[in-house]
Amino acid sequence: MLFIEDGAPVIVQGMTGHQGMTHTARMLKAGTNIVGGVNPRKAGTTVTFEGANNGADAEIPVFATCGEAREATGAKASVVFVPPRFAKDAVVEAIEAGIELIVVITEGIPVADSAYFVELALAKGVRIIGPNCPGLITLGSQPNKPGVNLGIIPDGIVGRGPLGLVSKSGTLTYQLMGELSDIGFTACLGAGGDPIVGTTLLEALEAFEADPNTKAVMMIGEIGGFAEQDAAAWAKEHMTKPVVAYIAGFTAPEGKQMGHAGAIVSGGKGTAQDKKNALEAAGIPVGRTPGQAAAIMRDVLAKAHIA
């Protein structure tokens, strides 16, 4: 099982809001087994998603709490579309309810709040993906199984294949998925670009290394922090599968935040060149553009005779 089993029951916190409604409909159409929403003000109601269940309408119940939702549905995962000021309480509620995987899409969560719920999740053995991320998509382990789409990653870009993908950038996730769509993926994980995230690049590499169906990994990093250097150091000692990287921000000026909260070069540290040097020292080739990184991956797969 890579991050989540096929067909696992999923709840959506903030499902009845605009973003929650939009992306719940899309996740349902992708085949995700969404079994409930959480909103204490609308508990006891149902929401109809027209044509979202293989052309049929999907009737999704709304629960007051994650605990009630899990008890009623057996939910294994939650996707969080809750505004930043309420996100900490929402994630803590999901952790305390025993949800095993929590995907936090919300951006703009205070770092102190993220630090609190990430630490709590670690103590409870819960995996968090995000915050400020596009989510997670797994491609079904068998042709007749749709896999799971948790978040805002477009589901029509790729099919099943031998690649894993982990990225700090949402848009670049989609671009590299598109560049390598003819090869396919086992899973694509948006780690998020905040200074503190629940699943780091290193931890994603660990999961892909342990997955027998993943044969190579594309890793997308960006300026700021040391996540890429940490991943490189771990990969050099433990990774047996090929890894190719792309780092965004080679031309970024020092001291200017570039998009994500964590994407900032400070004191000359966290530059794209620093990361490139560390990755290449660990034997991980780095493309200077997404297209170049995809071309490197194709060459790596050909040389390793990975179809």
UniProtKB/TrEMBL annotation:
**Where's the CoA-binding domain?**
3-109
* GO BP: any one term: tricarboxylic acid cycle
GO CC annotations, alphabetized: cytosol; succinate-CoA ligase complex (ADP-forming)
Q: Does the entry feature the keyword Ligase, yes or no?
A: yes
Q: Which reaction does it catalyse?
A: succinate + ATP + CoA = succinyl-CoA + ADP + phosphate; GTP + succinate + CoA = succinyl-CoA + GDP + phosphate
The record places the active site at H260
Give the top-rank taxon of the lineage listed in the UniProt record for this protein: Bacteria
Q: Where does CoA bind?
A: T16, G17, H18, Q19, K42, I105, T106, E107
- The gene behind this protein is sucD
Indicate what this protein is called per its UniProt record.
Answer: Succinate--CoA ligase [ADP-forming] subunit alpha
Question: EC number(s) of the enzyme?
Answer: 6.2.1.5
Enzyme class, broadest EC rank: ligase
The GO terms describing molecular function are: nucleotide binding; succinate-CoA ligase (ADP-forming) activity; succinate-CoA ligase (GDP-forming) activity
> What function does the entry list?
Succinyl-CoA synthetase functions in the citric acid cycle (TCA), coupling the hydrolysis of succinyl-CoA to the synthesis of either ATP or GTP and thus represents the only step of substrate-level phosphorylation in the TCA. The alpha subunit of the enzyme binds the substrates coenzyme A and phosphate, while succinate binding and nucleotide specificity is provided by the beta subunit.
Which pathway? Answer: Carbohydrate metabolism; tricarboxylic acid cycle; succinate from succinyl-CoA (ligase route): step 1/1
To which protein family does this belong?
Answer: Belongs to the succinate/malate CoA ligase alpha subunit family.
UniProt signal peptide = none
Q: Which PROSITE patterns match?
A: SUCCINYL_COA_LIG_2
Keywords assigned:
Ligase, Nucleotide-binding, Tricarboxylic acid cycle
Q: How does it assemble?
A: Heterotetramer of two alpha and two beta subunits.
* Pfam families on file: CoA_binding, Ligase_CoA
Residue numbers binding substrate: Y174
